[in-house]
């Protein structure tokens, strides 16, 4: 079991980051939709801070690790879309927690990470600004859902149409 990436395959660290964050992001979306049903427990906020911290680790790993080459038969436009999608995910996964945190702060609410610490305030309390931030945060969440759908469709295309082993590389690390 190889921990680090090579030009041909994703290592265990990258694969755990990918699948772990994917799972947490889906849970986070449901937590955001249903947090009020559980009395506004703050689970969504804590998960958002956790995802932000994991994203920072993932970005550091991305700068350190080799990025495997795309499948040899992938046309240039597909390679470009793949790179753009990766960076769109990173920007989105930065924007979502920051708009969520700023929204909470504009509502004059604390942002506790599972009761361990409070995230520093990003903005002063302001109800009108809070409403705008809430709208942006919710819009970004739906952009994430759309990007996830695009990502899944691309994975299935690689698996069922191209048959290039891309999904196997991300799932098991085998080239």
> Could you list the spans in which at least 5 consecutive residues all have pLDDT below 50?
none
The number of helices is: 5
What is the chain-wise order of helices and strands?
Answer: HHHHH
Give the number of domains: 1
Distance between the termini: 13 Å
Q: CATH fold name, please?
A: Fumarate Reductase Cytochrome B subunit
Strand percentage: under 5%
Name the helicity range: 55-70%
Overall pLDDT score: 92
**What is the CATH domain class?**
Mainly Alpha
Describe the protein's architecture and organization:
The chain is built from five helices and no strands. By secondary structure, it is mostly helical. The protein has one domain: Fumarate Reductase Cytochrome B subunit (Up-down Bundle), CATH 1.20.950. Helix 2 packs antiparallel against helix 3. The two termini are 13 Å apart. The mean pLDDT is 92.
Question: How is the topology of this model organized?
Answer:
Blueprint: H1 12-34, H2 43-64, H3 76-106, H4 127-162, H5 166-172
Helix pairs in contact: 1-2, 2-3, 3-4
Summarize the structure.
The chain is mainly α and 175 residues long.
Keywords:
mainly alpha, 5 helices, single chain, 68% helix, 175 residues, Fumarate Reductase Cytochrome B subunit
